[in-house]
Records
---
Amino acid sequence: MNTFSLNGREATFTPGQSILDAARENGVEIPTLCFLKQNAPTGACRVCLVEVAGARSLMASCSTPVTRGMEVLTESDRVHGARKLVVELLLSSGHHDCLVCEANGNCRLQDLAYRYGIRELKFSRSEEQYTVEDQNPFIVRDFSKCILCGRCVQACNEIVVNRAISLGYRGAKSKVVTGGDMPYHESECVMCGQCVQVCPVGALTEKKAAGLGRAWETEKIRTTCPYCGVGCQQLLHVRNGRITKVTGVEEAEPNHGRLCVKGRFGYDFIYSKERLTTPLIREGEGFREASWDEALDLVADRLKEIIAKHGPDSVAGVSCARSINEDSYQMQKLFRAVFKTNNIDHCART
Amino acid sequence: MTNSFAHFAKAKMMFVIGSNMTEAHPVASTFVKEAVTGGAQLIVVDPRRTPLCDFARIHAPIRVGSDIAFLNGLMNVLISEDLYDKEYVNSCTTGFDELKEKVMEYPPERAAEISGISADLIREIARTLASVKPAMLMYTLGITEHTCGVNNVLSCANLQMLLGNVGFECGGVNPLRGQNNVQGACDMGALPNVFPGYQRVDNPQAREKFEKAWGVEGLPAKPGLMIPQMMDGLVDGKVKAFYVFGENLANTEPDIRHVEHCLESAEFLVCQDIFPTETTRFAHVILPAAAWSENDGTFSSSERRVNRVRTASAAPGAAMPNWWIFRELARRFGHSWNSDSAQEIWDNELSKLAPSMAGIKYVRLEGDGLQWPVPTEDSCGTTYLHSDGCFTCGLGVLSPVDWTPPAEVPDREYPFVLSTGRRLYHYHTRTQTGRCEGLNDLLGEETADISPDDADRLNIRHGEMVRVRSRRGAVNVRANVTEQVPSGMVWMAFHFREACANWITNPAFDPVTQTAEYKACAVGIDKL
């Protein structure tokens, strides 16, 4: 039987499983920061430290496999002290100013600082100054908030495999870089925004969402992407009836949290001033506004006339491959059951 | 798709033909790339060196429109070298002798001559494919948008059946569908020959079933017209009234000048859309519709997955859901339709009429949706079709097909092949992406992509304006000199009106599907 001791309780594990995963399966949550589910653990942030009896030091639970009989403490004073120190060091590493941060309310570092009761900065702030990069239309990169957890690098290289960014420079100069450390818009980046979705702090944020609402103010509505035929599952973040941003639904088929540039950033066409908002009837070279009754009566009367004069097959229709199933069902029903023609098609074969 | 996107990441061998997946289906491509980084092998067959080629073990840059010759060449090697799956072919398929006879006419040397891929590489690809089972075949419009599109598809199916790859996880024949709900529009019967659930209109039992369900008599038995026939019908007077719902035909169909002449000829044109488009200019009545996130409903994806679409905000002004508009029109013809929401339409009508979707009800779609066939309410759906080679129709039919060249091939006056498609940052005619903040900044105009060789020869520099002309028309467009394109080819998209490729594409169609040959026509390039 593969068992180990978890906070004094006997717990089961499968060989090869990390302490983090085994603990989660046994109902014990260990906080993480750099850990990106379904990807190789990097052990970079040290927030998931636990105490293992007999070990020389505290161990990163994400990257330490459980062994039979291992005695693990996840919430000891020593563990708490170490995690608090890690968070304090991270807080001093940059300009983590929640008041003006777009990620406020959606920040793992903020959550951890609160959880470990940090009231003041123990260490002085790093003097390193980075400028904010926002020359591209979608993604704001603020390196003064980057904690170098590496999640964005993993997402770019292992999840969407776009290979646009990596960890560059060394030691205290470490930084997430594109090829040649160019800004995103001059790099290989294809603006899928997966890096933003996995960023646990405010280092990567969405430009279009800035100022439109805090995380706790938005309702999350699950839907399906309106572009290609993959059917990616999206979460629409909605505040006051307006989409503020779109993220991929984690652990959902088929996309497992992934989106492309159109799926993530191509949502605001619905708010365009150019939307058709009223029925229009041709008048000379232009159109005049009409009520639904007038427009629909006109369509029905003209179609009746044409069908009476030329037969049902003189009417033809093209349905929409972008609209919902129920719309196409209704349209073919209208053509077949009401007009009595099978002249109904759509762009099925292109 | 016979299979599911979840199989991409787990596949051991992938054969991608005529698919620029990283741009047209970016998220699908992430799973292919993930599989490759995990050790899977990838073979990409495409005239262009598409971004996916960076991950491929082999890239075969076949000549535009030579797919069948190339695929027949592969099958020739598989049979000649005894590498095909004999047991599968014997027990699961029919027509092997006829197929063999045909592909024997395509020894690798002949296939090489037509496709431009060396006989040795053809042999290597065939042997590589046969070395791993199952292999997964994916294709997109590079296969279908040809006058021989149907035969291209049959060839892909032949190859996969010969290899014994259909009916298994991580195998199959997998067309990536272009629009979010093009699968669904087919499933719903927005096709001239079938009712919802692919029940044929020329089948009397099917008609009787729908007559009863819809409370009508005399449903028409004769299959209707396909889009190009409708367009021509507008000119020759067979079609008087044309109802265009959510399509911008004036930009998407080949030979815009001809298309606009057709639209102009309509006695009565109704457009139902969310924006004014190049097509609505010709309308007599325009009806404003609710868009994507202003509706509750369902989309069906490439993997036959029915997923929910949910309302986030109200439609602007007087815009209404499309299903409501159709219902109101029916009412004016004296038909009163009971269903008064998308859910009622699905639950009370569609799922009761389409056997493959009988088990799908809205209440079951809260999570990850369901992949049809879902015949009953306790079925969990179907992640791959034709399980273990047991084909839905009995035996898998191997169909011998011959290579035919594109309808228009380069000549002295028009020495280049134009191939068209989609780019990453825009979608179709930009009715939507053109109105999203930021996307135009990433791609603000059309380009004609040409090879460095041709650019040198014609003395064209990257970014210079050129004129691309065909027998249909001409556009002025900026040259994009790129290694992605082989010499002799021009590649363009149809996202921007001014330099839309469809001013010059050829309205030649596959005889069965009436799919236009967007992938091949002859053009000339002039430096401006």
Note: Chain B has three domains: 5-176, 182-380, 416-527.
---
Amino acid sequence: MSEGREERPMPASFPPAGNEPLLARARAVAATVCDPEIPVLSIEDLGVLRDVTCSADGSIEVVITPTYSGCPAMNMIALELEIALEKAGFDRVRVTTVLSPAWTTDWMSEEGRRKLKAYGIAPPSEKRAGRGALFGADEVTCPRCGSANTVRLAEFGSTSCKALWRCQDCREPFDYFKCH
Amino acid sequence: MAKTIRVNETPLVLYTLRRADDALILGHRLSEWCGHAPMMEEDMALANMALDLIGQARSLYTYAGEAEGGGRTEDDFAYWRDERGYRNVLLVEQQNGDFARTILRQFLYAHFADLYWRAMMASKDATLAAIAAKSEKEMAYHVRHAGEWVIRLGDGTAESHARIAAALEDLWPYTGELFEMDASEKALVDAGIAVDLSALRERWRANVKAVLDEATLTTPADGWMQKGGRTGIHSEHLGHLLAELQHVQHTIPGAVW
């Protein structure tokens, strides 16, 4: 675990001259890796992919952050990043995990929200700042019929980031990606 | 064959291990419910909370290894210290008992951890502050989940009330240790790294009491309190827990998934 990466000054030679196309390609490859639990979302959609850098010798560093401390997908994501980049011809790849700043659902892209909903998972409620976001009166819309007449069945769902809800109109139970 | 390690417990290493051990041991206790909870939703909730706590423990152990500077990993601390080397409070190692007892233990700890991690976000130690910022969000869910159950059980049937009231009476004497600080911790408080736990106690009591009132339960008076966990003097339950937690590594050292 390496901390305080945000504050680390970039080396004078950054970005290394002539490596921009390499860096752009590495970024594009890293962004294709998907969350193993929610395969419809890429780690970029989720906001888990924080940074990709390329040093002068051409080695690639990918920085990721966990959604929840105990998220078991992190090891898998790191492995898949290494495999994807290796397949694309990058043989020196390092995946680093940072905790700060703490991940928040505010980082989920609009595209990510749209994909989640199409997949049958209600995206996190509208963006709210601070701790209130965790516990405001959640207004969760059914991803199937669009009704706002929904009720929470359980605080914890099939993964750390989801809760179990049910639509009172179409009666379908569904996963809700929790505000965090 | 790998052997029990002797940790160089500098104040920062000791401080970090105490928090890590609280999280790991409580996370392990909750994981014991996996497949046994009274309903599917609670099975998932308890496993999810166990995962949060074990995740927090992993970050803290990794940092303890860095602070110690001897190249130790999270696994070394979890698998290769014996009972006397563990620094968790006695509350978290208490047995699960029935569902009411598990929930009440979780309720008392989560309310503490919620205040604690929020205060730790201002720590001058950047790593501990980063771990705090992740943990406080997770504990907020634990607080809400446990509180809802305390109210449901306390203000429920005569049977559920009696069970959670008994758990409250039995576990309350373990809550004093949550706020215990020794000289090494006080020095870290002065340095702006640790939190002054005595400053959290009144708020903790008020938050806990508000829920207990709603649950028609009487908040016990603070009497004689159990202690010892922070210096490695544990109840008889921890050794059994560690026997299970460490069994595979002690049988096949270095085994990986």
Note: Chain B has one domain: 11-251.
---
Amino acid sequence: MLEPISISMQSLNLPSLLPMAIILLGALAIVCIDLATKSLTKSFYTMLGILFIILDLGAVMGYQGDVRGFFDVVLVDGIANISQIIILVTSIFFLPLALSQQRFQEFAMAEFYALFLFMIAGFQFMVTSDNLILIFIGLETASLALYTMIAMHNRKKAFEAAIKYFTMGALAAGFYTLSALIFYALTGSIEIHTIEAALNTNESVSVLGIVAATILMLAALGFKLSMVPFHTWTPDVYEGSSAALAGYMSVVPKIAAFVVAMRLFEMLMLLNIPWIEGMIYALVVITMTLGNITALVQEDVKRMLAYSSIAHAGFVMAAIIIGSTEANAGLFLYWTLFMFTNLGAFTMLWMTRHKKNLWDERYQHPFTKFAGLVKVSPIMAITMAVFMFALAGLPPLSVFWGKLYLLSAAVNSGYIYLAVIMALNSAIAVYYYMKLVVFMFLKEQVSDDGEIYLSNATPILIAILTMAVIITAGSAIVVDPLLEFFLTKVSMSGF
Amino acid sequence: MNHILTLIVFFPIVAGIFAFLVHPKSVRVFGISVATIEFILSIILWLGFDANTSGIQFVEYIPLISQFGMSYYLGVDGISLFLVILSTFMTMVALIAVSIKTDIKNLVIAVLFLETTMVGVFLSLDIILFYLFWEASLVPMLYIIGAWGSERRIYAAIKFFLYTFAGSVLMLVGILYMGYLFYEATGMWSFAITDWYQMALPFGTQLWLFGAFFLAFAIKVPMFPFHTWLPYAHGQAPTIGSVILAAVLLKMGTYGFVRFSLPLFPDASIYFMIPIAIIAVIMVIYAAMVAYAQEDMKQVIAYSSISHMGIIILGTFAMNAEGITGSIFLMISHGIVSGALFMLVGVIYDRRHTKMMSQFGGLASVMPTFATIYGIMLMASVGLPLTIGFVGEFLSLMGFYRIDWVITLFAGTGIILGALYMLTLYKRSFFGEVTNEENRSLKDLNGKELSALIPLVILVVLLGVYPKPILGPIDLSVKKMIQTMDNKVVTKEAKDLIYKANSIGGGE
């Protein structure tokens, strides 16, 4: 007969689970409401969803308890805090994109909103833990919800995208579990901080084992971060899903994966095992270079943005190699600014979404679609140009500050060659972003009807776009407070 | 006068935003008005400028990103003052002369945005701020060349953009590295150029950093062998684009050398002096020869620009007050002269829609005023004494003469070659019989064109005869800069060279 285990409620630190509890409650509430009545419109569910996200955000920001909670599997440190805020704020901006002019099947279904909230909870679990199993559960919860949401778009391409993403994701999940298994076999633990302690004290741990586990973990997270060579799904999935969801996918899953990568790989790199740093270094360089070069030859704006987001992910992963507090704060700065810019760019594509492929048989948003936009609708053209130049890293627009800070972090830690590679990659990237600007400003227009570019626009989309363009253009002012916040939080949690 | 620099920098861009609301019919006049006000502001700045101090004046300093040491830091000294006035003046004149009708509103807005970035480049004393304006200046120019140029305009615009952008990203790495070195040395972050002036760097580091900055500036100037984007950009750009490009944008590169490369990396600058001088001489002679072989008037002037930029580089790297002052003066005079020449080519292009010399001949009898102004500008470009072109060229060459007379001799042949291609151009287009019937009925300059060109002619002669008001303040600031360099050189060779360059023959 087992002894009864007595655990005090105090030691469980339940408030650390409050944010996730709120969002899960919200998801369940939406499911229940949908069971009761079918007459509610998408605007109701959108607003309800946003309300729950805001409550969640309040719980995250107001949390003042211990760092550890719930049998020590929950870890609410500084980077968990920042990444949750980024995830939630991004969700608040992306969810209202459902309120578009045209009717899309997925937004009419309440399940979409429930899944959206479940996904958020998954990502939150992923970032607020250093337990490999809880991270895995979070990752899978979020991913499964995301696969379904992509498929709900109900186009042939959407199914293709969902199945592709699911298959690749399943493979990644396999790698992940294998890697966690090896770590467990080596150290007898599945918590990153105890793994670290075990690896540091125990000299006899097989180096081969650590390297194998690292490779598997790189592959698993590489899929989520769309690192080359695990990136093949990205352009197809972006193309298949709606622009709103594609934009979301380019930001949120990646920040969650970055946090896991930061917790795990920076620990592993400190062990001074040969190969590990080299592998990550190579992966980062290949990802940004190949992503940029492939983006050069794309004919569709969305696919171009997909490859560009691969390159951006590679660029930001450099922070994990550098590993200094500055670099880690730089990662969050970069990604926050990138989020607003990508939000704008994808909202723009979303606004121009038309039921039919008017411009090209194959693509929904070919470059030619935007030819001569400045003559038809100068404000739209300028807005889009702002986003493109911002993504290209042209000063003083948003992503430039992230680039600047990351480059500076690289230089400060002595990674001059890495900095040069990063800088040269920015120079390559400017070409394909500029390609869209050239089409918009310098080519002859394809149609005189400006309305065609607003076929999916609603006031709320325009409001989101306006906000995105203001933040992108005026980011010079927000960089200082953001950076201060990130630096304190990151150094507080020891990164 | 406390915030006059902020006003000068941001007035055009704010006005440019207002221009969105102006009706296309009156937007040209709006643009000219704004540019004129801006020019007057810059003149007020000159009037308020104390010509007897060598230091930086009208300083404005606000920390912007304190975590990172980046600040909003503006100031003006003798070196930048006249480049600012040149920018505002040439923008005004170019807008007066503009003859484009299509999408004129977008053009005016782009030019006003460009003006902000140009002035910003010359007035920024925080190097990140400088970089910001430096990169931002590419966008309006991309649009101006790409939207209003001739057939291959898009190719030319992209080439221009990519070349300059690729060059400057490495400069960014250099800037950040320099910032880090400053942090290591002093324990605080700063990107203020005046702070950096105080710091001496070891020789090896200087070489690398000099290289990173050199690439960005050399592409912008453009120095051989990075010059290939320039003829394309000029060949395809509309008149106003060529005028601003030649008059101001190219000067950003040479200004960069004077403001950053020389005082920040004095040892490296001296170490690379002779190789750079040789490149400069190659530029002078090679570009002159290519200019001679051109059939297109505009290309002749484009290549002559490269040739003259060679002399500016030579003067800059003379490391003495005469050479550097001369090169800055030459920047200004070349800005005025090449701007005027491009405008004149634009005049004839508007009438005949061709720039080929073979299509002309005997224009002097049909368009006498045009021929006269063209002749004056040509002489100034060649460097005839008593024109503005002479002063700068003479001082630059004299400055370098103290370093190495052989190189100076070769560079001097550039003047002869310049006379050769320019006079050939003049002979083929203006003298002789009118061979092409279409040319018989050409109208002479109209009031609009005259009002743009006459001020330029006056300046060319006036400053050629009496350059003192400009040379004085430049010289003071340059001497201070050389003093800075002298204070912080670390190698003995460099110290000796600065001494040699500034004493022998100068009699000081």
Note: Chain B touches chain A at residues 20, 64-68, 103, 106, 128, 131-132, 135-136, 138-139, 142-143, 146-147, 153-154, 157-158, 161-162, 165-166, 169-170, 172-173, 176-177, 179-180, 183 (CB under 8 Å).
---
Amino acid sequence: MKHTVTIENTGETFRCDEETNVLLGMEQLCRKGIPVGCRNGGCGVCKVQVKKGQYAKRKMSRGVVSAEEEASGCVLACKIFPQSDLEVEVVGKMARAIVAQQSASSDFGFTTTMKTNKPVEEK
Amino acid sequence: MALTGVLRPGHVALRVLEMEPALKHYRDVLGLIEVARDDKNRVFLKAWDEHDHHSVVLREADEAGMDYMGWKVDSPATLKKLAADVEQSGLATEMSWIPAGEHPATGERFRFTIPTGHVMELFAEKAIVGNNCGTDGQDINPDPWPDGLKGIAATRFDHCLLYGDDLDGSVKLFTEVLGFGIAEQVMLAGDKKFMIGAFLSCSNKAHDVAFIRQPVKGKFHHASFELRSWEQVLRAGDILSRTKTSIDIGPTRHGITRGETIYFFDPSGNRNEVFSGGYIYYPDKPVITWYDESLGPAIFYHDRKLNEAFLSVFT
């Protein structure tokens, strides 16, 4: 059975069946909106807050989703399976992914965020 | 022997969210061979052309990522010496001795945390189980490869790329204490002494470990496994697609080390690589330098730009 997933940030909607995780459902239809990382629950790039709807879930890394977050519907799109229509908001590492993307076009972010350590000594 | 001290990466211990899918991946897709399980439910595997007992350790956990990386050194005497040197350097923290047998078929290991937050180990002894190529006993009149290989059939665990903040400290420890050389480095164009990436070798390989500066501690970018040709890398791409494995990028080529590569993810989101090629490193090889403005072709030579995942996706 297919349900409609709405990404609040962009207004994008797509249909996803109950056996397909939300991220894969989006990717299969060449839709965009949720950042794609490892697709396997480890990296946290696809973290969303579920605003409305029911879903089944599978294990996701505690390194990127706390038990409290998971209980409050802040979960990884690659590990949730819609059981009704869903409304999700992209949160978490997306900001970081966007920052990485923007800085990648200029200085890769190294100059602004990395200079906390002393430069290597001249040889 | 001419190659002394730290010989090679001996093992990588990875945390996986669920063991069975992880085993399907590492054993059936990547083609590692399961050699042992222990009473802590860890699974020990090796690549077919490795002689030592194991090179990959999997442990089920709530969080993906790397527990530690182990380095084989040439003798118990070297192990004692390097452990003392590491301790004396002041660069490492949380140092301890892990007793022999904690890993099956493995001698005692010296464990320490490096400035980028990664846990490293040195060890001198691990049982040799061979590569099963001998036709008249182990290593006697061997065939070029054994029967019964599965999947991609990577030949060996080759290196890791790790993300952390105090790059200078970890590079200093590996080069000045453990005797590694810098094969390639990435520096800021606007501040040519500021290092953002280091590719380090303890052997004849283009790299045995690499670090990239990121504002994190102890993060894991990928563990890499070797193949013997570009054709094998393309075949690996076919197998990864057939098994619906999550592919990050490739097949393509790295500018750094010139390796031909595919990045993909295990079922817990830990990145793997299979690669072939590269050059032979010698300690007197001039250091190759890349500047950050060329980081695109340095990492992905054909696309000439980083993909979004390279800097933001790690475990």
Note: The helical segments of chain B are 19-29, 76-89, 167-177, 230-242, 295-299, 308-312.
